[in-house]
Amino acid sequence: MTPSIEYVSETGSTNADMVARLAQGERMPDGHWLVANRQTGGRGRQGRSWIDAPGNFMGSTAVQLHDRDPAPATLSFVAALAVYETVLPMLANPSALMLKWPNDVLFEGAKFCGLLLEREAGHAVIGIGVNLKAAPAIEDRKVKALSDTGPAPERDAFAQALANQMALEFQRWREFGAEPIINRWKAAAHKPGTALCVHNSDGSRISGTFDGLDQHGALRLRLPDGTTHMVHAGDVLLEER
Q1: Are 116 and 104 in contact (CB under 8 A)?
Q2: Whole-number mean pLDDT of the chain?
Q3: Please, how many CA atoms are within 13 Å of residue 177, restricted to the half-sphere of its CB?
């Protein structure tokens, strides 16, 4: 997979653009990226908006799904690892970076990256936003930018580095399956016993401690009574104790 990057000055959402182009029958090679200088309608998980800022990274890529591929849901771990591996060598303190289920990358415990996965025309479309130079406020979330602790990477150089890393992670996902990806994710994520609160789409909440993942990437949440609750979707927050 050879990555290619298409830059646009402004759009509503790079994910929405890629989804629309695929729906219209456009043939899009794996590893092709659409990167915008500005987004006016960026989206995050559970319908949230993703607010951009000049110098930040906002882009989307697509991969065609095949019958022999691992479960498409595991691409969330692929995308998170790609961001993690891209950013890690840029930090003076690598331990400041941590993965959080299902696809968050935290910088000094704060949100600095957003990932959104969608399906269209036999493809998975992966949208990524990274706070390189500025961290727009998000309600009820602590946020940071890479520039908060050092020089921000130049956007185009970051885009190329991320595209190259994503191509490598896609290759590993296809050749070796999801298990090695999930194991690498767990090594960089919150540790077993970490207190978590899961916010479900129906507004309910459930608290417990992190007890690992199953082979498909679902979250194992250990409840206070000792039982295990499997979480396949939801918004997870780290709880302070």
Answers
A1: no
A2: 91
A3: 5
